[in-house]
Design a protein that fits this description.
73% of the residues lie in helices and 0% in strands. The chain is mainly alpha-helical. It has two domains: 4-92, Orthogonal Bundle (Rna Polymerase Sigma Factor, Chain: A), CATH 1.10.1740; 99-187, Orthogonal Bundle (Arc Repressor Mutant, subunit A).
Length: 192
């Protein structure tokens, strides 16, 4: 088994399966910066992001086994980190929510009927299939812009810089994409 930067995802997962604690160190070495960046975009705070990433390592340790994400290890980690970070924001900002968190919710509210209904619907397989179909029909650049905004919580300026567009073009594109998503959801019979 390789060690260091050359350790592939399958080998890291194998360490978890063997209950080898070096799995956490290897995970942190390979993906720690990316996970911290993801969490910081959500929480807006370095210290909180670090705590969320540490919680991600613990939850990963507790999730492997039974899960064996050999071929999708980073998405597995990112999903855990994102979930922990969002829950942390909800908890810490119940009365006074983080502006970025609220803004993103407001942007997507036009696609869903209500926040209470969103939590119930998100788990519904029909919604998942509809979202996958929507994303699958987008060209790669539009899909990446949409995902950077609504999965990774990148701000508009970062997305504009990453893709070489003006902020107004990104805002306009995201508005059109949300409209297309709404149409897709309605077409699939999902109440919006």
């Amino acid at each position: 088994m390789k060690r260091g930067d050359d350790l592939d995802d399958e080998s890291i997962v194998e360490l978890y399966l063997k209950r080898d604690e070096s799995a956490i160190t290897e995970t942190a070495d390979k993906y720690g910066n990316r996970l911290t960046s993801l969490s910081k975009h959500i929480t807006g705070d370095d210290f909180t992001a670090d705590e969320c990433v540490n919680d991600t390592y613990i939850q990963t340790w507790n999730s492997i086994p039974p899960n064996e994400p050999r071929t999708y290890f980073y998405p597995f980690l990112a999903r855990i980190a994102r979930h922990i970070s969002l829950n942390r924001c909800k908890k810490e900002h119940a009365a006074k929510r983080n502006g970025q968190y609220v803004d993103l919710g407001d942007e997507l509210d036009e696609c869903f009927s209500s926040p209470d209904n969103t939590e119930r619907v998100v788990d519904d397989m029909v919604l998942r299939e509809s979202l996958n179909r929507f994303l699958g029909e987008l060209d790669e650049e539009k899909r990446n812009i949409f995902i950077r905004r609504y999965w990774f919580f990148d701000d508009i300026a970062e997305i504009a810089d990453r893709f070489g567009y003006s902020e107004s073009k990104i805002k306009s594109l995201l508005m059109r994409l949300r409209g297309k998503l709404r149409e897709q959801l309605e077409k699939d019979g999902i109440v919006v």
